[in-house]
């Protein structure tokens, strides 16, 4: 158990450092990356590209038979395959929000240290949005529209 | 379109990407978990989770804040300049990001960095959708305010 907690903390530290180093925590830079019609700053494409260079082999190795993580009996990977309206509509809503302020969940939380008050506004509204989604989802009228399948 | 060429920021971006990828690989191979930040955050307070499960989520997010803060200090990054007048827009944007990532089951990290690496069709579609929606939004805002 303690091992897993240490792994989570270490991963978070590295992730946060990577976001800050790569420029993802700077909303102006993010908006400059998203602004392809004006002066386009492509640097953030390198963030995702270089991250994938590491994660692609890491996930390929995890798929091998008999592979097991250090601190858990199994890999907790998503099982859902079906593309549904929720995936598309949700992603579009997320993109709309991302384009307004240049903040996605990771950088917004990471910036709680740099701009506590402003990020508290963003992050608490994000939490409210997540809660609101689950609340609407649990209403009787929403039942039967889909099967819930969240990462376990 | 005009492309900004800045090799210094490209190099930092590449190094940041390697760090993010390594962090995701570490969480996968150590804890068996996907480094999807919207999901890690959401299940901190939603759903029926055990205390131990919430604890690793909390520690990851604490690390995220500390890691970013330390790295920004080291690199002497310019501070963020938010005013109270920005708060309504931040609130609206945060709400959309919250509803959207929960509905789509992932964000830039879960779908973008981890899902694409697993060659997941869902994640590829999600990434294309949120990228194009974000680009269109920036285009619309900049056209309207120009």
UniProtKB/TrEMBL annotation, chain A:
Source organism of the structure: Solimonas aquatica
InterPro entries associated with the record: DUF6691
Alphabetical list of Pfam families matching this protein: DUF6691
Keyword Transmembrane helix: yes
Protein origin, superkingdom: Bacteria
Segments crossing the lipid bilayer: 44-62, 83-103, 109-132
Keyword Transmembrane helix: yes
UniProt keyword annotations, A-Z: Membrane, Transmembrane, Transmembrane helix
Protein name as it appears in the record: Sulphur transport domain-containing protein
UniProtKB/TrEMBL annotation, chain B:
Protein name per its UniProtKB record: Uncharacterized protein
Pfam families documented for this protein: Sulf_transp (PF04143)
UniProt record similarity statement: Belongs to the TsuA/YedE (TC 9.B.102) family.
Any single Gene Ontology cellular-component annotation: plasma membrane
Tagged with keyword Transmembrane: yes
Protein location: Cell inner membrane
Residue spans crossing the bilayer: 58-75, 87-104, 124-144
Keywords on record: Cell inner membrane, Cell membrane, Membrane, Transmembrane, Transmembrane helix, Transport
Lipid bilayer topology: Multi-pass membrane protein
Taxonomic placement: Bacteria, Pseudomonadati, Pseudomonadota, Gammaproteobacteria, Nevskiales
